[in-house]
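Write out this protein's structure.
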Amino acid sequence: MLKKKLLASFAVAAAFITIAGNNIAVSAAKAKRTAIFTVRIENISSPDGIAGQNGEKYPFALSPGLFYANHRKNYFFVEGKKADAALEAQAEDGNPELLSKKLLTKVGSIFLGVFNKPVGGGMAAPILPGGAYEFNFTAQEGMRFNLIAMYGQSNDLFYSLNEALELFDPNGDPLSGDITGKLLLWDAGTEKNQAPGLGDEQAPRQKIANTGAAENGVVSIIKDGFAYPNTRDVLKVTITSNTANAKIRSVSSPDRAVSTRN
């Protein structure tokens, strides 16, 4: 009788060990990969400038902006809906501060950051031809990435992705490469558009921020009859990844943003 009880006990123990081992294996298989990503945004426009509507040339500039890594498709705006004050500040003045504060409670400081200091510069400023922004963040499988920045010398135009970009493919491999083609030029619909590089309500000609004629429109892909350069002719945005020693950690605290209307 004792022998039978011992055998039964061993059988139960063996079954438990097998189940536990299987659970550990399943958990390991489901473990999400983590990677460190570096994003570089370069102003590759011609130093000679972009031809305006009157034939004169103006320098292309990109404002300070904001990025996030999270699970939602788009935190910045909804196409076809009116822009709020936070998006308006980014689109009209190149100031991501309000948008950063708005998204802080939704995204969290670990997955949200302002980029506003050009590489090699110590102060917040837009990037002119030859300039670049660069930043890092850490993310896990299932997370998406998006960024936003103002088209300099416009009334309320900005670059962003329609839907946030998947940071890992179905095999769990992190994203690397040129993502410039994913960026679209948007009209916030908050201020009436003037010819880029010429309008008196555009930086650097506007004397005071947020004083242009209200448009009362909605966020949409730019289509106003004016000519704008192809994105690939003025910007290059690349993302590289590294899985070595990658752990979820907080990005640097966002620097106080600066308006491009200086």
